[in-house]
Amino acid sequence: MGKVKIGIIGTGSISNMHMAGYNRLKNVEVVAACDISEERVKEFAKTYNIPNTFTDYNEMLKMTEIEAVSVTAWNNIHAPASIAALNAGKHVLCEKPLALNAAQAGEMVEAAKKSGKILMVGFCRRFGDNAVALKNIIDNGDLGNIYYAKAGCLRRWGNPGGWFSDKQRSGGGPVIDLGVHMIDLIRYLSGKPKVVSVTASAFHHMGMKPEVKGIQKYNSADYSEYNDVEDCAASLIKFDNGMTLFFETSWVQNRKEDRLYLELFGDKAGAKMEPEFELYENKYDYLRDSKPLLDPNGSSFEHNFVQEIKHFISCIADGAECLNPAEDGLELMKIIDAIYQSAETGHEVIIN
Ligand SMILES: NC(=O)c1ccc[n+]([C@@H]2O[C@H](COP(=O)([O-])OP(=O)(O)OC[C@H]3O[C@@H](n4cnc5c(N)ncnc54)[C@H](O)[C@@H]3O)[C@@H](O)[C@H]2O)c1
């Protein structure tokens, strides 16, 4: 079998992580790249030795040799570019969030079904060694019935600006950006329950505050200070397996430091996956803490992407079952929509 030929749509920051994955695989060749910024796509092609560049993805998708694409552009481009790629007969790995909202995500799922091609969503954190280990522990029943979970991804001063803080292009702030990873992890680890209700608040009190000095943060490729999204949000999400999740997130919040945490509470044991991996239980009438020894680099940002890309190619080349199907991205978008709806109306949102 020949090499799997890839095209990249969007050559900003995160496309470099996709390249880190593709470049490690002998059966892959990235043959084309596209960005609306001609300068950026040419630079990217030069760095990675990619022979074809485009500024319109519809033109790139005419290349019959391309078998699959990575969609690594702004969130509002995910749906149109993925649907165009699927209609052109390409497999798609689309970055998270799958779309701006559930309606768009539903159209993407339909397009994938019609085309018979793979539409995988970039929930890269599922591929970290910590998530893989915890999923295995949970699937073996060690936590028992998981009835409560807590997750947070909190930044003190980290609004990436540019398209990220422009609702039209991003769909929202930290909820749709950071929240998709955290809420997805909880759903994935606990057996993909379906959401039944959401109560949330979102706050818009801080803004960009560009005058603040001395901070290092992730910025979008085309940084600007326009900002019409939430600074932070908190939510209570209930699922059809009886589990309740408390989730909070911020890009900007007057807090001492950034914080990442993810905890699941079962009737046999509890587990913390972030900031460190620990298990808590009652064994022979004594409370016991345990700590599986994991590869310290096995859950790094780059590692997760490399594993994700490896899996995407394995789905295409070996027929492996896709671990991150678009349906999971759609389920997440229903939750994200409900968080924003509840925050706006001040009421609980019930999802049938
Ligand atoms: N999985 C993760 O942990 C993770 C981390 C960061 C970003 N992301 C996601 O990756 C995507 C890109 O984020 P980023 O940080 O690389 O942003 P970025 O601003 O660095 O790059 C986005 C690129 O998309 C290009 N673009 C916009 N419209 C386009 C179009 N119609 N056709 C082709 N290119 C187009 C822009 O010109 C820009 O170069 C977002 O959806 C983001 O949510 C995921």
Automatic annotation (TrEMBL):
Any GO molecular function: nucleotide binding
Residue ranges of domain GFO/IDH/MocA-like oxidoreductase in the record: 133-270
SUPFAM superfamilies in UniProt: Glyceraldehyde-3-phosphate dehydrogenase-like, C-terminal domain, NAD(P)-binding Rossmann-fold domains
Pfam family, one: GFO_IDH_MocA_C3
The Gfo/Idh/MocA-like oxidoreductase N-terminal domain, residue ranges: 4-123
Entry protein name: Predicted dehydrogenase
Organism: Anaerocolumna jejuensis DSM 15929
Phylogenetic classification of the source organism: Bacteria, Bacillati, Bacillota, Clostridia, Lachnospirales
